[in-house]
C-alpha cells in the first residue's frame, strides 16, 4: 500500500508537470487537443492523488506502524474517528491532504469549464497544475508520508492527546479547503491576464470558488479558536500568535477581495486592484505555510520545523514576482470603465472597506514579522504581542462594523441626502438607544459602547432591509409576510444571504466586545472553602482521582452558586498521560456556558491536604462568537444555494447586472 | 481631474491614519526579544526594561512553592544561566528541558521576574523520536 501511495504521488507530480505544459501550450495556440489533454491531465492528477490519499487512509485504518508517518501519529489505543484524522496531524499528511484538495478543486473546475473551453480555461488549468506540481514535488522528494522504517515498532507514538477533539479533527481540513481554494480564483485571474480575455468572465466563473474558500478559511479559524478555548485551557480563544496570524492574513485580504469583485462585476472598476488582492491572498496562503513550518518566527504552537521552509519561501517569491510582472505587462488591458463619482456612494463604501481590510492585513503582517525585520535591520529582535494587535485592530474593526451597516444601503454612483435620511434615521436611533441603555445599565467602557452601538445600528439596517423588501413584495404579489420574506431572500440570494452573513459578523463582534469585561481570579482552596467572582460563589468540595486506560484523571469538584441559587458542579481536571514517555499533562477545563457569559474553571494543580489551585475566568458573551459562526454558515448556505433550473452555476442575477454595466460603458 | 485629486486626497488621509495607528501601536507595546546569553551581554542596556527572554529550563532546577504559587527555576542558553521567578499557572508543557519564553524584568539582584511564561515542548506535535524507541527495544 505504501509503495502504491508513493508511486501515485510521484505519478501525480509527473502528470501535473505535463498538464502545466499542455495547458500553457493550449492557452497559447488554442489548439483543441492540447486544451482537452490538459483537462484530462488535471482529472488524472485528481485520480492519482485520490489513490494516494486512500492508501494513506488505509494505512492509518490498519495501523501499519512500519510506515514512519503512521507510527509517529497513531497508536493501537487511538479510537476510530481520530485514527483516520491522524492523517493530517503531521506535516507530510497535511501536504498530501493539501495536494489532494487542490486536485479535487481542479477536477471540479475542469468539469464545469468544459462548456466554455478556451484559452482562459486552458491557462487556468496550467496554473492549477503548476501549484499541484509544487506540492506533489515537495511530498515526493522531501516529505513523503509513505516512507518506511527498517523495523516494525510494537506500537505507534499515538496522537498528541491535545489533538483528540472534534474541532481539531475538522479544523485542519477546513483551513486547507480555504487556503487551497484561493488557488482557483488566483489561477483564473492569472489566466485572464495570460489569455488577454479581460472581460469580467473570470470573476463570474470563479465567484463561488472564491466565496467557498473564504468561508472555509473563516470557519476553520473559528474552529481553531473553539479548540484553543476548550482544550488548551488558557481562558481565551485567540492570542495573536504568529500561527493564528498567518491564517488570518489571507482571510483579511480574501474578505477585501470578495467585496471588491462586486464592484468590478457591476461597474468594471478596480480591475488592477482586484488582481493585486487575489495575488496577495494566494501568496499569503502559501506564506502562512512557510511561516508555520520554517521556524523563522517563534510560536507557542510548536509545529515541526522542516527543510521545506526555503522551498515555500521560494514558491511565494516566484508567485509574487511572476504574477506581479504579468500584471505590469498587461496593465493596459485593465482600464476602468467608470470613475468614482461621489464620496457618498456604494463604490466609496467598498473602497473604504478594502482599505480597512488591507490596513488590518498590513498591521498584522508588520506585527508578526517585526521580530525578523528588526533583527535583520538593527541586529536586535523586537517583538510585539496582544496589546499591539488589540490597539490597532479594535479601531479598524469598529470602522468595518460601521461600514457593514452603511455600505450595503448606499446607492451606486451617488447617494442623495434624502435617501441617507430615509435609510439611516431609524437604525441610528436604534444604535443611540442601545448606547443610552447600556450607559444607564452602568457600562462605561468607551470602545465597548461604540461597538455595541454599532452592532445595534447594523442589526437595525439589516432588519429594515428585510422588512422593506418583504413589505414591497407583499403589496405587489399578495403573499403573506413570511412567504414574501422567503421568496425575497431566495430570489436575491447574494444580497439577502450577504445580509445574513453580515448579521453573523455582528454577533461575532458582540462576542469580541465581551472580552472588555473579562474577569479572572486565582484561588488556593482547602476542601470546604469558597471563592467569589462577580455574582458567582464557587465552593471547593474535594478531589477525585481515577485511572483509566490512557490517563490518570484528577478532578476538583466545585459547587457553583449564583445569587444564592445552586447552579451545579464543575469538575475541572488534569489528565496525566502516564503511558506516554513524556508523561504529558493536559488541562481539562470546565465551562458553564450561557448566552450572557461563560464561567470557566481551570485546575492548575494540587497541594498537600487536598488543596486545589484554581483559576476562574468569567468571559462575558463568548457564546455569541460561536453563534455568529453558525449564522455566517447559514448565510453562506443561502448565498451559495444552487439556482433552480440552471444547474447551480452561479448565473443568478449577474447577467442582467453586467448588461447594465456594459450600457454604462457605451 | 479635480474629482480624482479629491479622491486621492481622501485616500491619502485614510492611509495616513492607518499608518499612524500602526506606528503609535508600537509605542509601549514593543519589547526586546533576547536569548539568555544576549541578556547577559546587554545587561546595561536592558536594565529595568521589560524584555522577552528565550532559553531552556535547566533540568532539576524547578522548585514550585505551592503555598505562594511561585515557581523558581533557572533558564540556560549559550552557556549562560539566569535565575527566574514566576508567580502563576505554568503551562502543561513546562518541564525540565522545555524551551521557555519569558516576559518580564530583570531585578537588581539578577533574578528575572517573569510576568508571562510560555513553554513549548520541542516534541509537542511529533511524539518521541523513533530512534529512542528503537534503542529501547534493543536494550
From TrEMBL, chain A:
Query: Which GO CC annotations does the UniProt entry carry?
Result: plasma membrane
**Keyword tRNA processing in record:** no
What's the protein's topology in the membrane?
Multi-pass membrane protein
Cellular compartment(s): Cell inner membrane
What ranges does the record list as Basic and acidic residues composition bias?
Answer: 649-666
Residue ranges crossing the lipid bilayer per the database entry: 6-26, 38-60, 80-108, 120-142, 176-194, 214-240, 246-263, 275-296, 308-328, 349-372, 392-412, 424-443, 449-466, 496-517, 621-641
- Region feature (Disordered): 646-666
According to the lineage, what is the superkingdom? Bacteria
Domain named Cytochrome c-type biogenesis protein CcmF C-terminal: which ranges? 326-640
**Which key words tag this protein in UniProt?**
Cell inner membrane, Cell membrane, Cytochrome c-type biogenesis, Membrane, Transmembrane, Transmembrane helix
Q: Which GO terms describe its molecular function?
A: heme binding; heme transmembrane transporter activity
Signal sequence region: none
Report domain Cytochrome c assembly protein positions: 88-294
Any single GO BP term = cytochrome complex assembly
By sequence similarity, the record places it as follows: Belongs to the CcmF/CycK/Ccl1/NrfE/CcsA family.
What this protein is reported to do is described as: Required for the biogenesis of c-type cytochromes. Possible subunit of a heme lyase.
Spell out the PANTHER family in the cross-references.
CYTOCHROME C ASSEMBLY PROTEIN-RELATED, CYTOCHROME C-TYPE BIOGENESIS PROTEIN CCMF
The protein's name is Cytochrome C biogenesis protein
From TrEMBL, chain B:
One GO MF term: metal ion binding
Q: Name one GO biological process term.
A: cytochrome complex assembly
Q: Where in the cell is it found?
A: Membrane
InterPro entries from the UniProt entry: CcmE, CcmE-like_sf, NA-bd_OB-fold
Q: Which Pfam families does UniProt cross-reference here?
A: CcmE (PF03100)
Main localization category: membrane
This entry carries the following GO cellular component terms, namely: plasma membrane
Q: Which UniProt keywords apply?
A: Cytochrome c-type biogenesis, Heme, Iron, Membrane, Metal-binding, Signal-anchor, Transmembrane, Transmembrane helix
How is this protein named in the record?
Cytochrome c biogenesis protein CcmE
